Amino acid sequence: MFSPVVSVRSVSISVPDGKRVVFLSDVHLGYGNRSADRQREDRLLATLRAIAPTTHHLFIVGDLFDFWFDYGTVIPKGHVRTLAALHDLKAGGVQITYLMGNHDFGHATYFREELGIEVEQGDIDATIDGTRFYIAHGDGKAHNDKGYLVLRSVLRNTTVQWFYRMLHPNIGIGLAARTSHGSRDYTSAKDFGPHDGLRDFAYKQLKDGFDIVIMGHRHRVAEERSDDGVYVNLGDWLGERCVIGEFTPQHGFRLLPDPYISGSI
């Protein structure tokens, strides 16, 4: 049985009074026609502007982009407004942790060098004001994702990516985009079996001592509270309903539905 080693980095975060930690996932910028994609980006930008004054730390839990692959001197065109917004958030004092998803696995140095944002290849064990979070995108966690785990080990291999970067960017980025679109459709339609493997994985982490487990990837919003803790799936931004997660030491964790449309932020 294929069993890849997934790195887990531990961090400790202290939230100042009046501030919060925000989580979002699976925006999939770049998917669909340009009009729909621009509306999705507008919604994201409005949300980022709204949360900026009161956010201490932002976790992007994978698949911000429907595809991403940066070369030494080239990145995918488009979404420059989002890149600028993330830069401004970081420059304004908001800490940003970006977990790599199964679509935006082609990060190299651009985010770190140009935006000052590290992109995490593994999962995060975050203690936030005494509450212990397990944060992961979720790809490869389901019981029947073994085939994908083999593929991921190839796609994220540094030697494979080095050879891939020898392709002309017009070819390489175009191929990555088409592959990513197919992968997104596969994930959305995937039968995760009678037991949701992401949920089972989350409940195991709760049994092991975590208070809250946060993931994306599944494209279905979930917030389940049990005696052991809270399992959260952040869903996606591809439909009318999208959510962000919020944690404050005073009020704990909650999902904020439709943050841009409803004005709840």
Please tell me about this protein's structure.
The protein is an alpha/beta fold and 265 residues long. It has a domain at 15-122 and 144-195 and 235-257. 32% of the residues lie in helices and 23% in strands. The protein has 7 helices and 12 strands. It has a 6-stranded mixed sheet, covered by helices on one side. A 6-stranded mixed sheet has the order 5-4-3-2-11-12, covered by helices on one side. A hairpin with a 3-residue loop joins strand 11 (243-248) and strand 12 (252-257). Helix 1 runs parallel beside helix 2. The radius of gyration is 18 Å and the shape is globular. The model has no long low-confidence stretch (mean pLDDT 84).
Concise description?
The protein is of the alpha/beta class and 265 residues long. It has a domain at 15-122 and 144-195 and 235-257. It is built from 7 helices and 12 strands.
Number of contiguous helices: 7
| Average pLDDT rating | 84
Q: What can be said about the biggest beta sheet?
A: 6 strands, mixed
Shape summary = globular
Radius of gyration based on Cα positions = 18 Å
Into which percentage range does the β-strand content fall?
15-25%
SSE order: EEHEHEHEEEHHHHEEEEE
Indicate the percent of residues in helices: 25-40%
The order of strands across the largest sheet is: 1-6-7-8-10-9
Count of β-strands: 12
State the secondary-structure class: alpha/beta
Would you identify the regions where 5 or more consecutive residues have pLDDT less than 50?
Answer: none
Q: How many angstroms does the end-to-end distance come to? A: 45 Å
